[in-house]
Design brief:
634 residues, alpha/beta, Rossmann fold, 25 helices
Length: 634
C-alpha cells in the first residue's frame, strides 16, 4: 500500500519521483482537497475538478518551471497552484492578502504568464517559444492549456495561424475539451468540436474494422488509403493540421495511463503539437457534474449538501434589475436584440433567452464580433443591447470607436461589474470604462446610483438614438425599490439629493450612499450626477455660484474619469473652484471583499470625511436636509 500524500508534494519535482499508481492515488487526494478548499473560500470549482489528472500529468512529464506552462483562462489552475507550493495558501484564496484565483507571475515562478481574460495563452507561449529559440534554448517546451470555450475567440486562431509559419519552435497546445466556457458553448466551431462523438465512433469503428479486415489483407490496404479521407470527414483534426500543427487525440483527460505516455511522446517530437483531451467539469463531485454552471464559481458551501438557496430572499442585484428590464423593454419594442459574449448567466439573460430566443445572441468569447455584430443590426434599424462586463469591453475598444461610435449607431451597452469586483481582483475589475468611454465622441456614459436609477437610465439610454452605456456594479445596491414601467429621465441632467452649504459632493454612481452619509456631518450638498457624458454643465455652473468647493466621487479610475470631466467643465467656463477628486488610485487593485477595499481606498463615508478634513480641516460642518425626489424632478 502506497504512503503517497498530497502534503508531501511541495513542488512538481516531488511528482516526478512517483510512479503511475502513486500518481492516481495523488489525483484522488488532490480532487478532494480542491473541493474542500473552494467550499471554504468560494471560487471556481467545476473546471478545476476537471483538470486534476491533466495538471498532474503535465507537471510529471515536463520540467516546469523551466518548461513554460500557461493556463487559459485561469479558471482551471487551482490544482496547478496546489502542486506548485501553494497548498496551504489555498485557505486564503481570493481573499485580501491571499493568493489570486488566477495565475499571476508575481505569485510564483510556476505561473509563466498572468491569465484571466480568455484566449491569450497560445499567443503568450508562441512569444516565449520564439524568445527561447533566439536565445539558444531550443529544447525548452512551451505549453498552452486552453479550454474549448476560449477557442471561440479570434485571438486564439490568430496565434495558431502565426505559429504555423514560425519555424523551429516548440509549442504544445492542449485543448481541454470540457465545455469550458461559463455559459453553454455556442457557435459553429463548438459544433465542429462536438463531432468528438463522431471521432470516438470513428476510432471505435476503425479498430473494429481493422480486426475484421486483418483476415482480408488486400481490403485492409484499401482501407488504410481511405483512412486519411475518412479522418478528414469524421474527426476534428483537419482544422488544426491545416494550420500547421500535428493533431493528436482526442484522449481521455482523466486517464493518466493515456495522458502521460502521450505527453512524453509529444515532448520528444517537439515542434508544433496539438493535443485534444476530453475532461468533465465537476469530475468526481456528483453535484458539480450534474450542474457545472451552478458550480462554476460558487461562494462558500457545505460539500455534503451542496449549494443551498438562502433562507431569506437576498436583495435584488443590478444584474437582476437589468435582466428584468431587458425582458420588459423587449416586450415593448420588437426591435430590441440582446447580445452577450458568452456571459448569459453572469449578465442576467437567462429569462430573456427563454422568452425571446429569436432575439437573443450569445456570440461566444468574441467581444470584438459582439460590438460589430450589434453595429450591423443598428445599421438596419434594430436596437441592440450588448450585455457585457466592463472588463471585457476593453477587448472590443476599436470596434466600439470605429464601428459603433464613429457611425453614431444606436447600440446600448449594459456594463456589468463596473468598478471593483471583489474576489476576482485586478484582472476583472471594471475600473477604466468611465475614462475610456467619455473620450469617445457620440458616446453617452450613465452612472446609476441605485437599482431603481439603473432601470431608469437603461430606459433612457435605450431610447437615445445613438451609442450609450450604463455602468453598474457587481452585486446588490442599497436595496432601493424598483418602480415598474419604462420611464426615462432627461439626458445629461443630474439631481440634487441633499441641500447643504459650502461644500458640494458630486457623486457618480453607487457611491452616492456614502456621500449622503458623509454629508450629514459636513452639511454638504449632494448631487446624483447620473451622467458623466453629457455632463450636466448647467448644474455644475449653478453649484459653483453658491458653494465654496467641490468633491467628486466615483468608483472608477481617478485619471481621466468623472472628476476630470468636472474639472474640464470648470476650466472651460473660466470658473476657479477647488475640487477634491476621489476615486480609484492610479494602480491595479488586488482581490478582496468589495466593502473592505472601498474602505481601504477611502471611498466609504468615513474615508470621504477624512479626505475632506485633510484638504480643508474643519471648514465644513453642521446639519443640512435631504431632498426627496419627485417624479417631476426626475
Amino acid at each position: 500500500m502506497s504512503n503517497v500524500s498530497l502534503e508531501q508534494i511541495q513542488s512538481p519535482a516531488d511528482l516526478r519521483r512517483l510512479d503511475r499508481r502513486e500518481l492516481k492515488e495523488l489525483a484522488d487526494q488532490l480532487r478532494q482537497f480542491v473541493l474542500e478548499s473552494v467550499s471554504r473560500t468560494g471560487g471556481h470549482l467545476s473546471s478545476n475538478l476537471g483538470t486534476v489528472e491533466l495538471t498532474i500529468a503535465l507537471h510529471h512529464v515536463f520540467n516546469t518551471p523551466d518548461d513554460r506552462l500557461v493556463w487559459d483562462v485561469g479558471h482551471q489552475s487551482y490544482p496547478h497552484k496546489i502542486l506548485t507550493g501553494r497548498r496551504e495558501a489555498m485557505a486564503h484564496l481570493r481573499q485580501a492578502g491571499g493568493i489570486s484565483g488566477f495565475p499571476k507571475r508575481s505569485e510564483s515562478e510556476y505561473d509563466a504568464f498572468g491569465t484571466a481574460h480568455s484566449s491569450t495563452s497560445i499567443s503568450a507561449v508562441l512569444g516565449m517559444a520564439v524568445a527561447s529559440r533566439n536565445t539558444g534554448r531550443r529544447q525548452r517546451q512551451h505549453i498552452a492549456v486552453i479550454g474549448d470555450g476560449a477557442m471561440t475567440a479570434g485571438m486564439a486562431f490568430e496565434a495558431l495561424n502565426n505559429a504555423g509559419v514560425t519555424p523551429d519552435v516548440n509549442v504544445l497546445v492542449v485543448l481541454n475539451d470540457n465545455d469550458m466556457s461559463i455559459s453553454p458553448p455556442v457557435g459553429a466551431l463548438n459544433h465542429y468540436l462536438a463531432r468528438l462523438m463522431s471521432g470516438r465512433f470513428y476510432a471505435a469503428a476503425k479498430n473494429v474494422g481493422k480486426a475484421v479486415l486483418q483476415r482480408v489483407p488486400p481490403v485492409l490496404e484499401i482501407a488504410r488509403r481511405m483512412e486519411g479521407h475518412a479522418k478528414g470527414l469524421m474527426s476534428p483534426a483537419t482544422l488544426f493540421e491545416e494550420l500547421g500543427f500535428n493533431y493528436v487525440g482526442p484522449i481521455d483527460g482523466h486517464d493518466l495511463d493515456a495522458l502521460i505516455p502521450t505527453l512524453e511522446n509529444l515532448r520528444e517530437l517537439g515542434g508544433l503539437q496539438f493535443l485534444h483531451v476530453v475532461t468533465r467539469k465537476g469530475q468526481g463531485y456528483k453535484l458539480a457534474e450534474a450542474d457545472p454552471v451552478l458550480y462554476h464559481g460558487p461562494g462558500k458551501f457545505d460539500p455534503s449538501v451542496g449549494i443551498q438557496k438562502p433562507a431569506t430572499a437576498p436583495r435584488k442585484t443590478f444584474t437582476q434589475v437589468f435582466g428584468d428590464w431587458i425582458c420588459d423593454m423587449a416586450q415593448n419594442d420588437t426591435r430590441l436584440f440582446g447580445i452577450t459574449p458568452a456571459m448569459r448567466e453572469g449578465s442576467g439573460l437567462i429569462e430573456f433567452e427563454r422568452r425571446f430566443p429569436n432575439r437573443y445572441f450569445d456570440v461566444g468569447i468574441a467581444e470584438q464580433h459582439a460590438l460589430t455584430f450589434a453595429a450591423g443590426l443598428a445599421c438596419e434599424g434594430q436596437k441592440p443591447v450588448v450585455a457585457i462586463y466592463s472588463t471585457f469591453l476593453q477587448r472590443a475598444y476599436d470596434q466600439l470607436i470605429h464601428d459603433v461610435a464613429l457611425q453614431n449607431l444606436d447600440v446600448t451597452l449594459a456594463l456589468d461589474r463596473a468598478g471593483l469586483v471583489g474576489a476576482d481582483g485586478a484582472t476583472h475589475a471594471g475600473n477604466y470604462d468611465i475614462a475610456f468611454l467619455r473620450c469617445v465622441p457620440n458616446m453617452v456614459v450613465a452612472t446609476p446610483s441605485d437599482e431603481n436609477e439603473a432601470r431608469l437610465l437603461l430606459s433612457t439610454c435605450f431610447q437615445h438614438p445613438g451609442p450609450a452605456s450604463v455602468r453598474y456594479p457587481r452585486g446588490a445596491g442599497r436595496g432601493a425599490a424598483v418602480e415598474p414601467g419604462l420611464d426615462t429621465v432627461p439626458l445629461g441632467r443630474g439631481v440634487v439629493r441633499r441641500q447643504g452649504s459650502g461644500l458640494a459632493i458630486l457623486a457618480f454612481g453607487t457611491l452616492l450612499t456614502a456621500a449622503l452619509e458623509a454629508a450629514e456631518k459636513l452639511d454638504a450638498t449632494v448631487v446624483d450626477m447620473r451622467f458623466v457624458k453629457p455632463l450636466d454643465e448647467a448644474l455644475v455652473k449653478e453649484l459653483a455660484t453658491n458653494h465654496e468647493a467641490f468633491v467628486t466621487l466615483e468608483e472608477g479610475a481617478i485619471m481621466g474619469g468623472a472628476g476630470s470631466a468636472v474639472q474640464e467643465c470648470l476650466n472651460a467656463h473660466g470658473i476657479v473652484m477647488p475640487v477634491l477628486q476621489l476615486g480609484l488610485p492610479d494602480r491595479f487593485i488586488d482581490h478582496g471583499e468589495q466593502a473592505v477595499l472601498l474602505s481601504e481606498l477611502g471611498l466609504d463615508a468615513s474615508g470621504i470625511l477624512k479626505s475632506v478634513q485633510q484638504r480643508w480641516g474643519s471648514r465644513f460642518g453642521s446639519a443640512g436636509k435631504v431632498v426627496q425626489l419627485s417624479s417631476q424632478n426626475r
